[in-house]
Amino acid sequence: MHDDTKLTHAGREHGDERRHHGVVNTPVYHASTVTYPSMAAMKASQATPDHGVFYGRMGTPTTFAFQDAMAALEGGGGKTLAVPSGLAACTTALLATCKAGDHALIVDTVYAPVRRFCEGMLKDLGVTVTYFAPHADIRPLLQPNTKAVYLEAPGSMTFEMQDVPALAKIVRAHGAITMIDNTWATPLYFKPLAHGVDISIHSVTKYIGGHSDLLMGTVTAAEPVFTRLRETAWNLGLYVSPDDCYLALRGLRTLSARMARHQQTGLRLANWLRSRPSVQRVIYPALPGDPGHLLWQRDFTGAPGLFAFVLQPGPDAALAAMLDHMKLFALGYSWGGFESLIVPFTPGYSRSATQWTETGALVRISAGLEDAGDLIADLEAGLARFTGALAGAPATAQPRR
Ligand SMILES: *Cc1c(COP(=O)(O)O)cnc(C)c1O
Q1: Are the CB atoms for 79 and 222 separated by under 8 Å?
Q2: What is the domain range of residue 87?
Protein backbone atom coordinates (compact mmCIF):
# COMPACT_ATOMS: atom_id res chain seq x y z
CA MET A 1 0.00 0.00 0.00
CA HIS A 2 1.32 3.47 -0.85
CA ASP A 3 1.73 6.14 1.83
CA ASP A 4 -1.15 8.26 0.51
CA THR A 5 -3.49 5.30 0.90
CA LYS A 6 -2.12 4.51 4.35
CA LEU A 7 -2.70 8.12 5.39
CA THR A 8 -6.34 7.73 4.48
CA HIS A 9 -6.97 4.24 5.84
CA ALA A 10 -4.53 3.42 8.64
CA GLY A 11 -5.81 3.63 12.20
CA ARG A 12 -9.45 3.21 11.21
CA GLU A 13 -11.78 0.27 11.66
CA HIS A 14 -11.96 -1.97 8.65
CA GLY A 15 -14.69 -3.85 6.88
CA ASP A 16 -17.47 -5.07 9.14
CA GLU A 17 -15.73 -4.45 12.49
CA ARG A 18 -18.12 -1.58 13.27
CA ARG A 19 -16.54 -1.01 16.70
CA HIS A 20 -17.35 2.67 16.21
CA HIS A 21 -20.67 2.21 14.42
CA GLY A 22 -19.15 3.01 11.03
CA VAL A 23 -18.21 6.61 11.81
CA VAL A 24 -15.19 7.58 9.72
CA ASN A 25 -12.95 8.95 12.50
CA THR A 26 -12.14 6.98 15.65
CA PRO A 27 -14.07 8.83 18.36
CA VAL A 28 -12.50 10.52 21.36
CA TYR A 29 -12.53 8.14 24.30
CA HIS A 30 -12.01 9.97 27.58
CA ALA A 31 -11.07 7.58 30.34
CA SER A 32 -9.21 7.31 33.58
CA THR A 33 -10.53 4.06 34.98
CA VAL A 34 -11.66 1.22 32.76
CA THR A 35 -14.11 -1.28 34.15
CA TYR A 36 -14.36 -4.98 33.36
CA PRO A 37 -17.23 -7.44 33.27
CA SER A 38 -15.11 -10.22 34.77
CA MET A 39 -11.72 -11.09 36.19
CA ALA A 40 -10.91 -12.94 32.97
CA ALA A 41 -11.61 -9.80 30.91
CA MET A 42 -9.54 -7.75 33.32
CA LYS A 43 -6.58 -10.07 32.82
CA ALA A 44 -7.02 -10.22 29.06
CA SER A 45 -6.87 -6.43 28.71
CA GLN A 46 -3.42 -6.40 30.33
CA ALA A 47 -2.11 -9.16 28.09
CA THR A 48 -2.25 -6.97 24.98
CA PRO A 49 -0.51 -3.70 25.89
CA ASP A 50 -0.58 -2.38 22.31
CA HIS A 51 -4.36 -2.21 22.10
CA GLY A 52 -5.74 -3.37 25.43
CA VAL A 53 -7.87 -0.70 27.04
CA PHE A 54 -6.56 -1.21 30.53
CA TYR A 55 -6.10 2.13 32.25
CA GLY A 56 -6.52 5.61 30.81
CA ARG A 57 -2.87 6.55 31.15
CA MET A 58 -1.81 3.77 28.78
CA GLY A 59 -4.21 4.93 26.08
CA THR A 60 -7.67 4.45 24.70
CA PRO A 61 -8.80 3.48 21.18
CA THR A 62 -8.21 7.12 20.14
CA THR A 63 -4.55 6.85 21.16
CA PHE A 64 -4.17 3.47 19.50
CA ALA A 65 -5.70 4.69 16.25
CA PHE A 66 -3.16 7.50 15.98
CA GLN A 67 -0.26 5.26 17.01
CA ASP A 68 -1.26 2.59 14.49
CA ALA A 69 -1.48 5.13 11.68
CA MET A 70 1.96 6.55 12.53
CA ALA A 71 3.46 3.06 12.72
CA ALA A 72 1.98 2.16 9.33
CA LEU A 73 3.52 5.29 7.81
CA GLU A 74 6.94 4.81 9.42
CA GLY A 75 7.06 1.19 8.20
CA GLY A 76 9.97 -1.09 8.99
CA GLY A 77 7.93 -3.27 11.33
CA GLY A 78 7.89 -0.56 13.99
CA LYS A 79 5.34 0.27 16.64
CA THR A 80 4.62 3.83 17.70
CA LEU A 81 4.11 5.34 21.13
CA ALA A 82 2.63 8.82 21.55
CA VAL A 83 4.19 11.03 24.24
CA PRO A 84 3.25 14.53 25.47
CA SER A 85 5.66 16.57 23.32
CA GLY A 86 8.39 16.27 20.73
CA LEU A 87 10.94 16.98 23.43
CA ALA A 88 9.46 14.16 25.55
CA ALA A 89 9.97 11.86 22.54
CA CYS A 90 13.66 12.84 22.35
CA THR A 91 14.24 12.41 26.09
CA THR A 92 12.26 9.14 26.30
CA ALA A 93 14.44 7.66 23.56
CA LEU A 94 17.62 8.63 25.44
CA LEU A 95 16.33 7.52 28.85
CA ALA A 96 15.24 4.17 27.40
CA THR A 97 18.68 3.45 25.97
CA CYS A 98 21.16 4.95 28.47
CA LYS A 99 21.81 4.17 32.12
CA ALA A 100 24.49 5.21 34.63
CA GLY A 101 27.95 4.42 33.29
CA ASP A 102 26.86 4.52 29.64
CA HIS A 103 28.05 6.92 26.96
CA ALA A 104 25.93 8.69 24.32
CA LEU A 105 27.04 10.31 21.07
CA ILE A 106 24.92 13.26 20.08
CA VAL A 107 25.04 15.17 16.80
CA ASP A 108 26.22 18.72 17.42
CA THR A 109 23.34 20.24 15.43
CA VAL A 110 20.75 18.62 17.71
CA TYR A 111 17.56 20.49 18.67
CA ALA A 112 18.85 22.82 21.40
CA PRO A 113 16.53 21.66 24.27
CA VAL A 114 17.86 18.11 23.75
CA ARG A 115 21.39 19.38 24.35
CA ARG A 116 20.13 21.07 27.52
CA PHE A 117 18.64 17.74 28.65
CA CYS A 118 21.91 15.94 27.89
CA GLU A 119 23.99 18.54 29.73
CA GLY A 120 21.63 18.48 32.71
CA MET A 121 19.56 15.45 33.50
CA LEU A 122 21.39 12.86 31.42
CA LYS A 123 24.79 13.80 32.90
CA ASP A 124 23.26 13.91 36.40
CA LEU A 125 22.07 10.33 35.83
CA GLY A 126 25.67 9.30 35.21
CA VAL A 127 25.67 9.16 31.41
CA THR A 128 28.65 10.74 29.62
CA VAL A 129 27.95 12.62 26.42
CA THR A 130 30.09 13.49 23.39
CA TYR A 131 28.91 15.76 20.59
CA PHE A 132 30.03 15.11 17.02
CA ALA A 133 29.96 17.15 13.82
CA PRO A 134 27.18 16.01 11.45
CA HIS A 135 29.73 14.69 8.92
CA ALA A 136 32.30 13.34 11.41
CA ASP A 137 33.64 9.81 11.20
CA ILE A 138 32.15 8.53 14.45
CA ARG A 139 34.24 5.35 14.65
CA PRO A 140 37.01 6.92 16.77
CA LEU A 141 34.33 8.39 19.06
CA LEU A 142 32.61 5.10 19.87
CA GLN A 143 33.55 3.75 23.28
CA PRO A 144 32.95 0.26 24.67
CA ASN A 145 30.12 1.76 26.77
CA THR A 146 28.54 3.79 23.95
CA LYS A 147 24.90 2.73 23.99
CA ALA A 148 23.10 5.44 22.04
CA VAL A 149 23.89 7.54 18.98
CA TYR A 150 21.53 10.42 18.36
CA LEU A 151 21.11 11.86 14.85
CA GLU A 152 19.12 14.71 13.41
CA ALA A 153 19.06 15.23 9.64
CA PRO A 154 18.98 17.95 8.67
CA GLY A 155 20.16 19.63 11.86
CA SER A 156 18.09 22.14 13.82
CA MET A 157 18.52 25.76 12.73
CA THR A 158 21.42 25.09 10.32
CA PHE A 159 20.11 22.14 8.23
CA GLU A 160 23.27 20.03 7.85
CA MET A 161 22.48 16.61 6.38
CA GLN A 162 23.98 13.38 7.70
CA ASP A 163 24.78 10.08 5.98
CA VAL A 164 22.16 8.27 8.03
CA PRO A 165 22.49 4.73 6.60
CA ALA A 166 26.29 4.79 6.90
CA LEU A 167 26.15 6.03 10.50
CA ALA A 168 23.42 3.55 11.45
CA LYS A 169 25.46 0.69 10.04
CA ILE A 170 28.53 1.62 12.10
CA VAL A 171 26.44 2.00 15.27
CA ARG A 172 24.67 -1.31 14.77
CA ALA A 173 27.97 -3.13 14.26
CA HIS A 174 29.08 -1.62 17.57
CA GLY A 175 25.99 -2.99 19.31
CA ALA A 176 24.56 0.42 20.15
CA ILE A 177 21.20 1.96 19.30
CA THR A 178 20.71 4.71 16.71
CA MET A 179 17.92 7.23 17.04
CA ILE A 180 17.02 10.09 14.75
CA ASP A 181 14.87 13.16 15.17
CA ASN A 182 12.91 12.86 11.92
CA THR A 183 10.62 15.85 12.49
CA TRP A 184 11.80 17.86 9.47
CA ALA A 185 11.12 15.16 6.89
CA THR A 186 8.00 13.70 8.56
CA PRO A 187 7.50 9.93 8.20
CA LEU A 188 6.33 10.67 4.67
CA TYR A 189 9.67 11.86 3.26
CA PHE A 190 12.18 9.80 5.23
CA LYS A 191 11.91 6.28 6.64
CA PRO A 192 14.50 5.89 9.40
CA LEU A 193 13.78 2.22 10.15
CA ALA A 194 14.30 1.27 6.50
CA HIS A 195 17.69 3.05 6.65
CA GLY A 196 18.96 1.01 9.60
CA VAL A 197 17.96 3.41 12.40
CA ASP A 198 16.44 1.84 15.53
CA ILE A 199 14.27 4.67 16.85
CA SER A 200 12.42 7.30 14.82
CA ILE A 201 11.50 10.40 16.81
CA HIS A 202 8.90 13.00 15.85
CA SER A 203 7.57 16.24 17.15
CA VAL A 204 3.95 15.71 16.10
CA THR A 205 3.49 19.36 17.07
CA LYS A 206 4.97 20.36 13.71
CA TYR A 207 3.70 19.10 10.35
CA ILE A 208 1.71 16.10 11.59
CA GLY A 209 -0.49 18.22 13.84
CA GLY A 210 -0.12 20.84 11.15
CA HIS A 211 -2.48 23.44 12.61
CA SER A 212 -0.47 25.06 15.44
CA ASP A 213 -2.89 23.87 18.11
CA LEU A 214 -1.36 20.82 19.77
CA LEU A 215 1.86 19.53 21.29
CA MET A 216 2.80 15.87 20.98
CA GLY A 217 5.63 13.55 20.10
CA THR A 218 6.12 9.97 18.97
CA VAL A 219 8.80 7.33 19.26
CA THR A 220 8.73 4.42 16.83
CA ALA A 221 10.83 1.27 16.95
CA ALA A 222 10.64 -2.43 16.26
CA GLU A 223 10.89 -4.93 19.12
CA PRO A 224 12.75 -5.36 21.39
CA VAL A 225 13.58 -1.64 21.48
CA PHE A 226 9.91 -0.65 21.44
CA THR A 227 9.20 -2.41 24.73
CA ARG A 228 12.05 -0.46 26.35
CA LEU A 229 10.56 2.79 25.07
CA ARG A 230 7.12 1.90 26.38
CA GLU A 231 8.44 0.81 29.76
CA THR A 232 10.29 4.12 30.08
CA ALA A 233 7.26 6.20 29.15
CA TRP A 234 5.00 4.20 31.44
CA ASN A 235 7.42 4.46 34.34
CA LEU A 236 7.62 8.21 33.86
CA GLY A 237 3.83 8.42 33.75
CA LEU A 238 3.78 10.09 30.35
CA TYR A 239 0.28 10.53 29.03
CA VAL A 240 -1.31 12.06 25.94
CA SER A 241 -4.88 13.31 25.94
CA PRO A 242 -7.39 11.67 23.61
CA ASP A 243 -8.42 15.09 22.29
CA ASP A 244 -4.86 15.72 21.12
CA CYS A 245 -4.62 12.22 19.62
CA TYR A 246 -7.80 12.93 17.71
CA LEU A 247 -6.39 16.21 16.39
CA ALA A 248 -3.05 14.61 15.54
CA LEU A 249 -4.76 11.85 13.56
CA ARG A 250 -6.91 14.40 11.78
CA GLY A 251 -3.75 16.32 10.88
CA LEU A 252 -2.11 13.13 9.65
CA ARG A 253 -4.94 12.48 7.17
CA THR A 254 -3.99 15.54 5.11
CA LEU A 255 -0.22 15.37 5.65
CA SER A 256 0.65 14.37 2.09
CA ALA A 257 -1.45 17.10 0.46
CA ARG A 258 -0.09 19.76 2.81
CA MET A 259 3.53 18.63 2.52
CA ALA A 260 3.46 18.76 -1.28
CA ARG A 261 2.36 22.38 -1.06
CA HIS A 262 4.81 23.30 1.72
CA GLN A 263 7.60 21.86 -0.43
CA GLN A 264 6.51 23.64 -3.58
CA THR A 265 6.27 26.98 -1.81
CA GLY A 266 9.48 26.36 0.14
CA LEU A 267 11.40 25.79 -3.08
CA ARG A 268 9.90 28.85 -4.69
CA LEU A 269 10.77 31.11 -1.77
CA ALA A 270 14.25 29.58 -1.43
CA ASN A 271 15.03 30.06 -5.11
CA TRP A 272 13.78 33.62 -4.99
CA LEU A 273 15.77 34.43 -1.86
CA ARG A 274 18.89 32.95 -3.45
CA SER A 275 18.65 35.59 -6.18
CA ARG A 276 18.54 38.53 -3.72
CA PRO A 277 21.69 40.63 -3.25
CA SER A 278 21.00 41.07 0.48
CA VAL A 279 20.90 37.27 0.97
CA GLN A 280 24.32 35.66 1.29
CA ARG A 281 23.27 32.05 1.35
CA VAL A 282 20.14 29.91 1.42
CA ILE A 283 20.39 26.69 3.46
CA TYR A 284 17.91 24.08 2.26
CA PRO A 285 18.89 20.49 1.44
CA ALA A 286 16.17 20.35 -1.23
CA LEU A 287 17.94 23.11 -3.19
CA PRO A 288 20.46 21.93 -5.81
CA GLY A 289 23.90 23.15 -4.75
CA ASP A 290 23.15 22.91 -1.02
CA PRO A 291 25.97 20.98 0.74
CA GLY A 292 23.41 18.36 1.84
CA HIS A 293 21.55 18.12 -1.45
CA LEU A 294 23.06 14.86 -2.69
CA LEU A 295 22.41 13.02 0.58
CA TRP A 296 18.88 14.41 0.66
CA GLN A 297 18.31 13.33 -2.93
CA ARG A 298 19.62 9.84 -2.23
CA ASP A 299 17.72 9.11 1.00
CA PHE A 300 14.68 11.40 1.19
CA THR A 301 11.62 11.48 -1.04
CA GLY A 302 10.69 15.10 -0.38
CA ALA A 303 11.25 18.17 1.77
CA PRO A 304 9.06 20.34 3.92
CA GLY A 305 8.89 24.14 3.63
CA LEU A 306 11.36 24.74 6.47
CA PHE A 307 14.73 26.28 5.56
CA ALA A 308 16.99 29.17 6.47
CA PHE A 309 18.97 31.94 4.84
CA VAL A 310 21.88 34.11 5.89
CA LEU A 311 21.52 37.84 5.43
CA GLN A 312 24.29 40.19 4.50
CA PRO A 313 25.94 41.36 7.77
CA GLY A 314 24.16 44.21 9.47
CA PRO A 315 23.08 45.53 12.85
CA ASP A 316 20.15 44.03 14.78
CA ALA A 317 18.22 47.21 14.08
CA ALA A 318 18.25 46.39 10.36
CA LEU A 319 17.09 42.83 11.08
CA ALA A 320 14.31 44.22 13.28
CA ALA A 321 13.33 46.68 10.57
CA MET A 322 12.68 43.63 8.40
CA LEU A 323 11.12 41.22 10.90
CA ASP A 324 9.00 43.61 12.96
CA HIS A 325 6.82 44.64 10.06
CA MET A 326 6.13 41.47 8.10
CA LYS A 327 2.50 41.28 6.99
CA LEU A 328 2.06 37.54 6.44
CA PHE A 329 5.07 35.94 8.15
CA ALA A 330 4.62 35.90 11.92
CA LEU A 331 7.58 35.84 14.30
CA GLY A 332 7.35 32.46 15.99
CA TYR A 333 9.20 29.23 16.75
CA SER A 334 7.01 26.15 16.44
CA TRP A 335 6.86 25.52 12.72
CA GLY A 336 4.88 23.13 10.53
CA GLY A 337 1.50 24.83 10.76
CA PHE A 338 -0.56 26.13 7.86
CA GLU A 339 0.67 29.69 8.50
CA SER A 340 4.05 31.07 7.48
CA LEU A 341 6.62 31.91 10.15
CA ILE A 342 9.95 33.70 10.24
CA VAL A 343 12.48 33.69 13.07
CA PRO A 344 16.12 34.76 13.54
CA PHE A 345 18.66 32.46 15.21
CA THR A 346 22.18 32.68 16.59
CA PRO A 347 23.07 28.96 16.49
CA GLY A 348 26.55 29.38 18.01
CA TYR A 349 25.20 29.12 21.56
CA SER A 350 24.19 25.52 20.92
CA ARG A 351 27.31 24.16 19.17
CA SER A 352 30.47 22.66 20.64
CA ALA A 353 31.92 20.21 18.08
CA THR A 354 31.38 22.63 15.19
CA GLN A 355 31.56 26.37 14.82
CA TRP A 356 29.01 28.72 13.35
CA THR A 357 31.08 31.36 11.58
CA GLU A 358 28.51 33.28 9.52
CA THR A 359 28.60 37.00 10.26
CA GLY A 360 25.17 37.74 8.80
CA ALA A 361 21.95 36.96 10.64
CA LEU A 362 20.49 33.48 10.21
CA VAL A 363 16.78 33.65 9.48
CA ARG A 364 14.53 30.58 9.37
CA ILE A 365 11.42 30.38 7.23
CA SER A 366 8.49 28.04 7.65
CA ALA A 367 6.61 28.33 4.37
CA GLY A 368 2.90 27.99 5.04
CA LEU A 369 -0.02 27.33 2.75
CA GLU A 370 -0.52 30.93 1.62
CA ASP A 371 -0.06 31.96 -2.02
CA ALA A 372 3.68 31.88 -2.79
CA GLY A 373 3.54 35.17 -4.69
CA ASP A 374 2.01 36.94 -1.70
CA LEU A 375 4.74 35.48 0.53
CA ILE A 376 7.47 36.65 -1.85
CA ALA A 377 5.99 40.16 -1.88
CA ASP A 378 6.12 40.16 1.94
CA LEU A 379 9.75 39.01 1.89
CA GLU A 380 10.63 41.53 -0.79
CA ALA A 381 9.25 44.40 1.28
CA GLY A 382 11.07 43.01 4.33
CA LEU A 383 14.41 42.81 2.52
CA ALA A 384 13.85 46.36 1.27
CA ARG A 385 13.39 47.51 4.88
CA PHE A 386 16.57 45.62 5.79
CA THR A 387 18.71 47.17 3.04
CA GLY A 388 17.07 50.54 3.68
CA ALA A 389 18.04 50.38 7.34
CA LEU A 390 21.56 49.24 6.36
CA ALA A 391 21.99 52.28 4.17
CA GLY A 392 20.58 54.52 6.88
CA ALA A 393 17.79 55.30 4.46
CA PRO A 394 14.18 55.65 5.59
CA ALA A 395 12.51 52.29 6.21
CA THR A 396 10.15 52.97 3.30
CA ALA A 397 12.90 52.77 0.65
CA GLN A 398 11.94 51.12 -2.62
CA PRO A 399 12.91 47.48 -3.10
CA ARG A 400 16.39 47.05 -4.60
CA ARG A 401 16.12 45.14 -7.88
C1 LIG B 1 10.05 21.45 17.83
C2 LIG B 1 11.02 20.35 17.78
C3 LIG B 1 11.11 19.42 18.80
C4 LIG B 1 10.29 19.54 20.07
O5 LIG B 1 8.94 19.42 19.82
P6 LIG B 1 7.84 19.94 20.88
O7 LIG B 1 6.63 19.18 20.48
O8 LIG B 1 7.74 21.40 20.71
O9 LIG B 1 8.34 19.54 22.24
C10 LIG B 1 12.01 18.39 18.67
N11 LIG B 1 12.79 18.29 17.60
C12 LIG B 1 12.74 19.16 16.58
C13 LIG B 1 13.64 18.98 15.41
C14 LIG B 1 11.87 20.23 16.65
O15 LIG B 1 11.85 21.12 15.65
Answers
A1: yes
A2: 3-253
Closest Cα to atom 10 of ligand 1: 86
- Tally of domains in the chain: 2
Give me the active site residues, please.
Answer: 57, 111, 181, 206
My answer on whether 75 and 223 are in the same domain is yes
| Ligand 1 atom index nearest CA of 88 | 9
* Closest ligand 1 atom, residue 215 Cα: 7
Q: Is the pLDDT of residue 255 over 70?
A: yes
* Cα of 107 from ligand 1 centre, angstroms: 15
Q: If you measure from the C-alpha of residue 361 to the centroid of ligand 1, how many angstroms do you get, rounded to a whole number?
A: 22
pLDDT value at residue 393:
55
**Whether the model pTM is above 0.90:** yes
Ligand 1 centroid from CA 156, angstroms? 9
Q: Which atom of ligand 1 is nearest to the CA of 334?
A: 1
- Kindly state the average pLDDT of the residues 30-46: 91
Task: Answer whether residue 400 shows pLDDT above 70.
Answer: no
Distances from the Cα of 40 to the Cαs of 34, 313, 368, in angstroms?
A: 14, 70, 51
Pick from 115, 151, 205 the residue to mutate for probing ligand 1's pocket: most ligand atoms within 8 Å of its CB: 205
Q: Check whether residue 115 and residue 261 sit in a common domain.
A: no
